[in-house]
Specification:
Blueprint: H1 3-6, H2 16-30, H3 39-46, H4 50-62, E1 66-69, E2 74-77, H5 79-91, H6 94-108, E3 111-118, E4 121-128, E5 143-145, H7 150-158, H8 187-200, E6 203-206, E7 213-221, E8 227-236, H9 245-263
Antiparallel strand pairs: 1-2, 3-4, 3-8, 4-5, 6-7, 7-8
Length: 269
């Protein structure tokens, strides 16, 4: 590729235009963890100069990507961001898929999530909480490490190898970040687990991210047969024991099949 086509200059350094885009995206993403911020707070969060943060925040505000509270002078995700997010969810078919996710939640009594891969993380698109007082919640927009959650392993195991598949996991530096004693922290351990996932058709999280939380996930395919999302049941380990896991696994696999069938009928799928 030329420097113009890939956005990178000599020695792999980002060109000025690419750097501006990367910084703008980073500023927007900083609001995932803080609902309202001043430009100075954004600067400190991202390690930017205050003048740079002010410039980017003002530009995003001018486009409606950020809103501003005139009393506190704090910024928040704006109407343009909300509109784009809603359109993205609709065009990914989540409106059509939500009834199936609700049926899975109601049929099992456990929390349900739908997630997609974003780099080395899984972004939660939809989450339906369990009605149980003891439960595990992760709101839409939450990010999970791809090697430490059931949805991530389902996405890795069944993705196209020549695209963003299992081999892409090794781009992470070893050892992978450890969250609990059960976390898979090496390429060899992750690849062995992904082989088991492909053999049985579903992925498990055996308290690998949070002690006391287990999950089971299966891949969801689009109209071309490509895995684009994963659906998961998550909950306390005390309710995800050997007596219930076969039924929970069967429910997730059935739901994933129905979600795949529904997605194939989306316009343009």
């Amino acid at each position: 590729m030329t420097e113009e086509s890939d956005g990178r200059g000599a020695a792999g350094r980002p060109t000025p235009g690419t750097q501006s885009v990367d910084r703008a995206v980073a500023v927007l993403r900083s609001f995932e963890g803080a609902a309202r911020q001043t430009p100075t707070e954004v600067a400190h969060r991202l390690g930017l100069s205050v003048s740079t943060a002010h410039r980017i925040v003002r530009a995003l505000h001018d486009t409606g990507m950020l809103g501003r509270d005139a009393l506190t002078e704090r910024y928040f995700l704006g109407p343009t961001t909300a509109i784009l997010g809603r359109l993205a969810l609709e065009r990914m078919g989540t409106t059509l898929l939500q009834p199936e996710l609700t049926a899975l939640r109601d049929g099992t009594g456990e929390a349900v999530s739908l997630g997609v891969r974003v780099g080395d993380e899984v972004a939660v698109l939809l989450h339906l909480p369990s009605a149980h007082p003891l439960r595990y919640d992760q709101p839409p927009g939450a990010r999970n490490p791809i090697h430490g959650c059931a949805m991530g392993k389902a996405l890795l195991a069944f993705a196209d190898i020549d695209g963003d598949g299992a081999d892409a996991a090794v781009a992470m530096a070893e050892p992978y970040r450890r969250y609990t004693p059960a976390t898979l922290t090496t390429r060899a351990a992750l690849e062995a687990d992904l082989a088991r996932v492909r053999e049985r058709g579903y992925a498990l999280n055996e308290e690998e991210r949070i002690i006391g939380v287990r999950a089971v996930a299966a891949p969801v395919r689009d109209g071309s047969g490509r895995v684009f999302a994963a659906v998961a049941l998550q909950g306390p380990a005390v309710r995800f024991g050997p007596d219930r896991m076969p039924g929970l696994t069967e429910a997730v696999l059935a739901a994933a099949g129905r979600l795949t069938a529904l997605h194939r009928h989306l316009p343009g799928a």
